[in-house]
Design goal:
Helix content: 25-40%
Number of helices: 9
CATH class of the largest domain: Alpha Beta
Strand order of the largest sheet: 5-4-3-6-7-8
CATH superfamily of the largest domain: von Willebrand factor, type A domain
Radius of gyration: 23 Å
CATH architecture of the largest domain: 3-Layer(aba) Sandwich
Order of helices and strands: HEEEHEHEHHEHEHEHEEEEEEEHE
Shape: elongated
CATH topology of the largest domain: Rossmann fold
Structural class: alpha/beta
Distance between the termini: 28 Å
Length: about 375
C-alpha cells in the first residue's frame, strides 16, 4: 500500500508538537528493528489486530520504505517543528568601536540573509541603547522591549523579506558608545522570553548574548549572579541562553552564563577571522535549537492513545529510516545507545530523545522524524 493510501485511513493523522529543550552533543547510537510485534497488538481504541508486520519492507533493517500494510499500524505522520524565537542582545558599548563592530554586524547580516535561517524567528536589541532606554539607567523593563520584535525570516531577500529588512535597518546610523549594562540587558531579554513562552508554551525561545566586555554600570556585577538570571529562566520556562564572547570578554563569565542557560559552554570569537567565526557561531546556535521533546496527546480522532503503542522513526537526509528504541527513562540513556523515554511512564505528557539521539538530529540538516501509533513500542 502506498503512503497516500495508508494516510487515508485516518481523517486527521497525528501531529506531534515539539516543545522547548536543548540537549548536549554526543555520539549517535540508534536501535534498528521491527516496530510491530509478530503477535496481536492492542490499538489505542482497545481493539486487537491480527498478526503484526515488520515496520520496514525488508524486515526492519532500514529499507527504502515503510510497510504501510503492517496490521498493527493505526496512524503515522511526520513530526512538526514548532517556531523557534531567538532574541539577540547585542553589545554596542564603546569598546566595540572599530573593526570589531563592522565585522560582527556584517556577520549578523550574513546570518539574517542565509536561506538556512528561513523559518527561524529572530529579534534584536542593543545595549546600551538610549533610543529604547536599555542603557545605564538600569531599566530592566525597557530592555524587555525588543528594538526589533522577533519575526520569521523567509528564504526571500530583503526588502521582500520584511523581517530581514527590519533587522538590517536597525543597524543604520548606530555607532558604538557607552558602558556595559550587561546584567540589565540580559535580564530584560530573559523577561521577554519568559513572557513569550508563558503565552506560547509549546514553542521555543532563546536569548543570544553577544558581548566583548564584563558587566558594568548596573547591578549585579558579579558573574555568578548574572548566570543565576539565566538559570532561573531556564528552570521556569525552558528559556535557552547562548553566550558569545568577542575579543575582550572573560571566558569564565561567558561559560557561566551559557552553562546556567542550558546551552553548555560559551562560544568565543578572537580577532582573527572574527566575521566568519561569528557566522559559524550563529549557525551552530541555529542548528542546536532543534527541539528534542514531543507532546504526547491523550487521544487522536476521538480515540485514546495507548502509550505502550508508540514508535519513533528517524530518517537522515538521503538515508534510510531508522527505528529509535524506547528506554526506561533519562537515566537509561548512554552516549553509545540512543533512544527516547517518557517524562512519566504511567501518565506520559512528553516524549524525549536521549542526548545522543538529539545530537544526531541536530547535526543532520533536513533530517525527518516520524511517529507511528498502534504497534508495541520497541525497546532500544
Amino acid at each position: 500500500m502506498s503512503r497516500s493510501r495508508a494516510s487515508s485511513r485516518s481523517s486527521s493523522l497525528l501531529k506531534w508538537i515539539m516543545v522547548p529543550r536543548l540537549l548536549g552533543a554526543v555520539g549517535l547510537g540508534l536501535s534498528l528493528g521491527a516496530a510491530c510485534s509478530a503477535g496481536g497488538s492492542h490499538l489505542g481504541d482497545g481493539t486487537t489486530t491480527g498478526q503484526g508486520g515488520d515496520l520496514f519492507e525488508d524486515g526492519g533493517t532500514g529499507g527504502n520504505g515503510f510497510d504501510w500494510d503492517a496490521a498493527c499500524l493505526k496512524a503515522s505522520d511526520q513530526a512538526t517543528e514548532v517556531p523557534v524565537s531567538l532574541m539577540l542582545m547585542f553589545d554596542k558599548s564603546g569598546s566595540m568601536l572599530g573593526p570589531k563592530w563592522s565585522q560582527s554586524t556584517a556577520a549578523l547580516q550574513t546570518f539574517f540573509a542565509d536561506q538556512n535561517s528561513a523559518g527561524l524567528r529572530v529579534g534584536l536589541s542593543f545595549f546600551p541603547d538610549s533610543t529604547t532606554g536599555c542603557d545605564e539607567s538600569c531599566n530592566v523593563a525597557a530592555c524587555a522591549v525588543p528594538k526589533v520584535e522577533p519575526g520569521p525570516l523567509t528564504n526571500l531577500s530583503s526588502p521582500t523579506d520584511t523581517q530581514e529588512q527590519a533587522l538590517f535597518d536597525a543597524f543604520v546610523g548606530v555607532t558604538p558608545g557607552g558602558g556595559t549594562p550587561m546584567s540589565t540587558a540580559l535580564q530584560g531579554a530573559l523577561d521577554w522570553a519568559t513572557t513569550y513562552l508563558g503565552s506560547h508554551p509549546f514553542e521555543k525561545a532563546g536569548v543570544v548574548l553577544v558581548t566583548d566586555g564584563e558587566p558594568a554600570d548596573c547591578p549585579p556585577l558579579d558573574p555568578p549572579s548574572i548566570a543565576a538570571e539565566a538559570a532561573a529562566a531556564y528552570a521556569s520556562h525552558g528559556v535557552l541562553t547562548f553566550a558569545i564572547g568577542l575579543e575582550g570578554a572573560y571566558e569564565s563569565t561567558i561559560d557561566d552564563i551559557a552553562l546556567a542557560g542550558g546551552t553548555g559552554v560559551g562560544l568565543f570569537i578572537g580577532a582573527d577571522q572574527a566575521q566568519q567565526k561569528l557566522v559559524d557561531a550563529l549557525n551552530h546556535i541555529r542548528g542546536s535549537t532543534v527541539a528534542c521533546d514531543f507532546v504526547v496527546p491523550s487521544e487522536v480522532d476521538g480515540q485514546p492513545v495507548n502509550p505502550d503503542l508508540v514508535n519513533v522513526v528517524y530518517t537522515p537526509p538521503g538515508g534510510d529510516p531508522v527505528l529509535v528504541g524506547q528506554v526506561a527513562g533519562e537515566g537509561a540513556c548512554t552516549p553509545d545507545k540512543g533512544g527516547w523515554y517518557y517524562d512519566n511512564p504511567d501518565s506520559p505528557t512528553r516524549l524525549t530523545f536521549c542526548d545522543s539521539t538529539c545530537a544526531a538530529m541536530q547535526s543532520e540538516l533536513g533530517a525527518k522524524v516520524d511517529i507511528l501509533l498502534g504497534c508495541t513500542s520497541v525497546p532500544a
